[in-house]
Amino acid sequence: MSVEIVGPEAEALLSWSGLCAAIEAGHRLPRAEIDDLFLYRGADTLLDRAAWIDGLGALVKVATLCAGNRELGLPTVNGVVTLFDDKTGVLQALVDFHLVTKWKTAGDSLLAASKLARKDSRNILLVGAGVVAKSMVEAYVSLFPDARFSIWNRTAAGAQAMAAADPRLTAVSDLAAAVRAADVICTATMSTTPLIRGEWLQPGQHLDLIGAYTPAMREADDEVMRRGSVFVDARATTLHHIGELIDPIANGVISEAEVKADFYDIAKGLYRRTSDDEITVAKNGGGAHLDLMTAAYILAAWQNR
Q: Does 2 score more than 90 pLDDT?
C-alpha cells in the first residue's frame, strides 16, 4: 500500500466551508481518544499529539518548538503529521504540518463563529498580528464576505505592517475602543496576562479566544467569562488544561457546569446563540482530534483531485 505525501500544494483544493462540514461530521462519530506528550530541553519543546476516532482513523502529530531558530532564519515550529488507516493501522499519509495546523486552528474558530456569532456581524477585531491572525482573515471572509477588520498588536509596528499588506485591515491603537466597536473579537496572542476586559464588552458580541494553550496563558479576564456564555471546542482539552478556564473555575467565577457546550453537543442543538444580546465566548483548545479531522479532510481532497 503506497503512502500519500500531501504537501502545501493541496491548499488550492480546500475550502473553509468544506472543512467546517468535515469537523462537524467528525463530531458525530464516536468520541475521540486523545493524548499529548511533552518533552523539554531547556527552552525547547517536543510535543507529540495523538488521536484515534473510530470510523475515521488515527493521527500522530509531532512538533518541535525551538525559539533559537529565529536567529538562524528558520521557523521556530516544525513538525510532521502522520495519518493511519482506521481498520488496519497501516500508514496512509504524511501531511504537511503547517498546512494541517493552519487549517485546523482557523477552522476550529470558524466553526464556532458560524454557530455563535450574529449573522449580521461585520466589524471584526483581530488581537495579535501573527500567522494565525492572517489565517483568520481568510476564514472569516468565507463566513462574512462584507467583513471589515481592525487589528491591534502589542507592538504597533506589527499591526501596521499587517494592515499595510492587506487593504481590508485597519491598524488601531486603542484596544478598549476597538473591542467596544467590534461584532467579533478574535485573540491570537501568546499572552500570559488577560488583554480583553469584560467591562469593555457589548451585548451581542462574539469572542474567539485562540492563543492560550497552557495553564499559564490567558487572553481574557474573569469578567469576560462571567458576562459571557462560555463554549469550548472540547471539554477534555480545555477545562483542566488552559488558564482561560482553569483560573475562573478555581476562582469561583464560573463552574464547569456553566460551560454551555462543546462541539460534541452541536448535534443536540446546544452549541448555539440563544439571543441577539447574548455575549458568546468560544475557547479554541485545538486538540489532536481536530488535527485528525482536518488532516483526513485534506487527504480526501488530495485523493479526489
A: no
